[in-house]
Amino acid sequence: MDAKLSEEQQEIRRTLRALTTKRCTPDEVKAAVRTPVGYDPALWRTLSRELGLPGLALPDRHGGVGASVTELALAEEELGRVLAPTPLLASSGLVAPLVAALGGDAQREALLPRIADGTLTAALAVPGTGLATALGLVADNTSDWAGGGRAGGIQARRGTGPGPGVGAGPVSASGPRADGGTGWRLYGQAEQVLDGHSAGLLVVAAHTGGFARSRTLLFLVRGDAPGLVRVRQTALDETRPQARVELRDVAAELLGGGEGRGGADVAAALRATGDAVAALLAAEAVGAADRALERTVEYVKEREQFGRPIGSFQAVKHRLADVYVRVQAARSAAYYAAWAAAAARESEPGERVGGLALAQALEALRTSAAEAVQLHGGIGFTWEHDAHLYLKRAAGDELLFGPAHLLRARAAQVAELFPGSAGAARAVSA
C-alpha cells in the first residue's frame, strides 16, 4: 500500500471540499433532510453528472469512472465532514457491488450505467433490523437472519405469472426474459432501509425454499411496484434517511435471473460488500470527526473564561490533543481498509479489516462530537447549534452498523484470534 495520495485522489478531495463548503452549509443540510426525498436533488445531480461520484468504483464498461473503493472512500470522507445527505452510500456502496457480483449480464448492462450516472438510486432492504448481520459485520451471515421460513422476515415464492423481468421493463430497458417467464412474489417487511423511501430500485434479501431447501436470495423490486409500501421513519440521525418497506405480494425479479446464485454465493457477496461499506463508513466518520474537532478548536480560541481563551488552558489542550490522535489513527485505519477492500475486488490477496476500521472511526467520532458539545458550553447543548448532529451521526451509525464491541468481536471470530472466540461472539450478539 502506498500511503501517499495520488494527484487524482488529491483532486477529488479538493473539488469536493470546495463544493461542499459552498453548497452544504449547516442550514442547507437541515433544509435538505426535511424535503420528501431527504436530500438535495440539485446537489445530487452535480455530484453524479458533473463529478461522477456514483460511478467512481464501477468499471468503464458499466459506465463508471474505473477507479476503486479508495477513491469512493475519499469522496465519502469529504461528504462526511458536512454530514451531507446523499444516496451515494446506499446506491454505490451497498447495491452496485451486489448487482455487479451477482447480476446477470442483462441486469448489469441495464442497471449499473444508470446507477453510475445518478439517474437511478437504489437501496438494500433486509428483514427487520438485521443490516449489520446481513453484511457480516457483527455476526455470521449464513444464519436465518432472512426469516428462516418462519413467520416474519421476508419470504419469496414463485409466482404463477410473469414477474418484472428484464424484458418487462420496470428496472431494465430491453432483452429476453432471464427467468423463463416465471416471476417471483415477495411478502414481508424490512426496517431501517437506508434511502428506501425514495430509491427507484430495491434489492431485497428474501428467504426461499422452505425448510427443506432454505436459502437467502436477492431480488430486484421496482420503486413503484404494486403492493410495495414505503414509509419514511423518524431516525435519530436525520441526515441518514431511513424507511420501513412493506412488501405485500410484490412482483420481483431474481438477481442473476436464470443464473440465480445459491445462498452461499449471496452470503459471500454480502460479506464482501459489507467490508467495503464499512471502509466507506469509516472514512465518512473520520471526515465528520475531523470537522467537529476543527470547529471545537476554532471555538476554544474565541471563548473566554477568567479573562483568557479557554483554549489556552492546559487541560483543554490535552483533551483536544487526545481527540486529534484518535482522529488521525482512525483515518489511517480507514484508508488501509479501503485499500484492502479495493485489492480484494481486484482478486488480489487482501485482508477484510473494514469492521475494525469502522469500530475505531465510530469511537473517534463519538469522542470528537462529545468534546464538541462539552467545550462549546451551554450553546453546544442547543438545537440551534450543529454539535448535536455529529453526536447523532455517531450514535446512529453504531445502531445501524455496530456497535464497536460487536464489530471487534466479529473480527476476532473470523481471524480465530482466541480459542472459543466464535462461541463468545455468538453469545455477545445474541
Describe this structure as you would to a colleague:
This protein is α+β, with helices and mostly antiparallel strands. The chain has three domains: about 5-115, Acyl-CoA dehydrogenase/oxidase, N-terminal domain (Butyryl-Coa Dehydrogenase, subunit A, domain 1), CATH 1.10.540.10; about 120-265, Butyryl-CoA Dehydrogenase, subunit A, domain 2 (Beta Barrel), CATH 2.40.110; about 265-430, Butyryl-CoA Dehydrogenase, subunit A, domain 3. It has 13 helices and nine strands. The protein has helices spanning about 5-25, 25-35, 40-50, 70-80, 90-100, 105-115, 130-135, 265-300, 315-345, 355-375, 385-400, 405-415, 420-430; strands at about 120-125, 155-160, 185-195, 200-210, 215-220, 230, 240-255, 305, 310. The strands form two sheets. Strands 1, 2, 3, 4, 5, 6 and 7 form a seven-stranded mixed beta sheet that branches. Helix 4 packs parallel to helix 8, helix 8 (about 265-300) packs parallel to helix 10 and helix 9 packs antiparallel against helix 10 (about 355-375). The model is unreliable at about 160-170, about 175-180 and about 425-430 (pLDDT under 50). Its cofactor is FAD. Keywords: FAD, Flavoprotein, Oxidoreductase. This is Acyl-CoA/acyl-ACP dehydrogenase. Belongs to the acyl-CoA dehydrogenase family.
Number of strands: 9
Cα radius of gyration in angstroms: 22 Å
| Poorly predicted sequence stretches spanning 5 or more consecutive residues | 162-170, 173-181, 424-430
Please give the domain count.
3
The top-level CATH class of the largest domain is: Mainly Alpha
Helix content range of the residues, please?
Answer: 40-55%
Give, in order, the helices and strands.
HHHHHHEHEEEEEEHEEHHHHH
Number of helices: 13
**What does the average pLDDT come to?**
87
Measured distance between first and last alpha carbons? 37 Å
Helix- and strand-based class?
A: alpha+beta
**CATH topology group of the largest domain:** Butyryl-CoA Dehydrogenase, subunit A, domain 3
Strand proportion, as a percent range, falls in 5-15%
Shape: globular
Mind summarizing the main beta sheet? Answer: 7 strands, mixed
Question: What is the level-2 CATH architecture name of the largest domain?
Answer: Up-down Bundle
